[in-house]
Amino acid sequence: MVAASVLVLAVLVAAAARWSDHGDGDGTASRSPSTTTATEATTTTRAAATTSTTRPTGRFDRASGGTPVVGTGTLYRYAVEVEEGTGVDVDDFARAVDATLDDRRGWTTADGISLQRVSDATAQFTVRLATPATTDLLCAPLTTEGQVSCGHNDSAVINLTRWLDGAAPSKLSVADYRHYVVTHEFGHLIGHRHETCPGPGQRATTMMQQSYDIGACTPNPWPAPDA
Ligand SMILES: [Zn+2]
Fold first, then answer.
1. Could you tell me the pTM of the whole model?
2. Tens-digit pLDDT profile for residues 68-103
3. How many whole angstroms from 70 Cα to the centroid of ligand 1?
4. Measuring CA to CA, which residue among 175, 181, 136, 134 is closest to residue 156?
5. Mind listing the domains of the chain with CATH numbers?
């Protein structure tokens, strides 16, 4: 894990321009995502795990099995992994990721692509749930500050803290925030860059950094919300 991060760091010197847009901690040192509101906590079934009882191990379990191909167009295969020590079951996380990526309101409709979860080496991308400390390692040199997630180096790294608590500035329920964060970070892997609020009263876009702010936009996790 450490060796891989060092390698990433070396490669990144040449690729900084490309990757600087692929993480959600980039250039955000002065921004501090808000903590969970009581409203969110009471409207969402919180997972058994809490970040205060987790420990980073750097070891990941991969979900076995897979899903049928969903959608049409270019096929992207992904694997799902959960860090040991998060307290989250890898199959539960995989089901949640599958449900999000297979949803008609997601990238299959918005980009006209097809997606399939696999558990073997044919996976081009990996969606990982990681403790805050490991997220920082995997996302480095992007600055995730133990708070946010990132999508780079062919991995969407979902920060356990955000998975469990969501992010109040997004104005999304934790359930919808989970759809958002998986879709957003996966969006980076398939080439999407950050966007800004298209206008007052309009829906927030998936590629906005909603963990920090949605401005005058209305809450929305999906790239194709009307599908
Ligand atoms: Zn992002």
1. 0.80
2. 999 999 999 999 999 999 999 999 999 999 999 999
3. 24
4. 181
5. 60-227 (3.40.390)
